[in-house]
Design brief:
It is a single chain. This protein has 10 helices and 7 strands. By secondary structure, it is an alpha/beta fold. It has a single domain, classed as 3-Layer(aba) Sandwich (Rossmann fold). The chain has a 7-stranded mixed beta sheet with strand order 3-2-1-4-5-7-6.
């Protein structure tokens, strides 16, 4: 038994260090999520918040060119993280069932990797629309199920008929300019049918090692969509910890909600 504990000791020390780092990130989040004070805005720019004068499409394209994918958690942990997120999403959508009768728009769809999950939840392909500001979505169109509509362009300028659900996953954290966040939020809210909503998944803490993203607190989500009825749930164990954890340890640590760095939100239009 002592030997097993000795083998785990280096892993526990690593997790302790990652937790301390996350505490520092939380401190950064306190000042960067208040974009109205000129002093704090200057600090935000030091951490990578974009100049509002740069077109959003150019910002996003530059961020993707610089981006490098971090090491993913183990297969079992990745699957558990994904299942937790999907359970939260499906619980928020329960009042809209059957989903086969509903329409869905995904903002920031990239290559359409979420389509199998949407179909698994119950949406029909011919009622799904994908949008991305980058033309990479057009390149993936031929590999998508028949019936899915693809629209490339700025989400704030979409002119489609309102839908029941808009899914925005890891979108607003990539929009570094506060004015662009406000503009996109104002542009997509009219695209939601009454009784429907925006299904949101994003992280809330800043990552000081990645200047191309900025966390979105639940309070900022509420400010971006002031007319929505907001419900949210903490999900996704902090990636620096989950990458170091086997499945059994992930389950133990993930039981602490404060160590979950993302939120699934349901922004309902009444």
């Amino acid at each position: 038994m002592l030997r097993a504990h000795d083998r785990l000791r280096p892993r526990i020390r690593t997790i302790d260090r990652q937790y301390n780092n996350l505490e520092k990130v939380r401190d950064i989040d306190r000042f960067i999520t208040s974009p109205y004070d000129s002093t704090l805005r200057a600090k935000s720019e030091d951490l990578g918040v974009s100049d509002d004068s740069t077109p959003l499409e150019e910002q996003i394209e530059a961020q993707y060119r610089r981006r490098s994918e971090p090491r993913a958690p183990g297969h079992d942990v990745s699957r558990a993280i994904r299942a937790e997120r999907h359970r939260a999403c499906q619980e928020f959508l329960r009042d809209l069932e059957p989903l086969a009768d509903r329409t869905l728009l995904e903002i920031g769809a990239h290559r359409g990797a979420n389509v199998p999950y949407f179909l698994g939840w119950g949406f029909r392909a011919d009622r799904i629309t994908l949008n991305d500001i980058r033309p990479v979505l057009n390149e993936a169109k031929s590999k998508l199920p028949v019936g899915i509509c693809v629209i490339v362009g700025d989400a704030a300028r979409l002119t489609i008929e309102p839908v029941d659900v808009i899914y925005v996953g890891m979108v607003f954290s990539s929009i570094l300019s506060h004015s662009d966040r406000v503009r996109v939020a104002a542009g997509i809210w009219p695209l939601v049918k009454p009784g429907g909503g925006i299904l949101w998944y994003d992280f809330t803490w800043n990552n000081p090692w990645n200047r191309d993203v900025r966390g979105v607190s639940v309070h900022e989500v509420a400010r971006l969509f002031p007319h929505a009825r907001l419900a949210s749930r903490r999900v996704t164990l902090a990636p620096p910890i989950s990458r170091q954890s086997p499945l059994w340890l992930y389950r133990v640590i993930n039981a602490c909600p404060l160590l979950r760095t993302h939120r699934v939100c349901w922004l309902q239009k009444t």
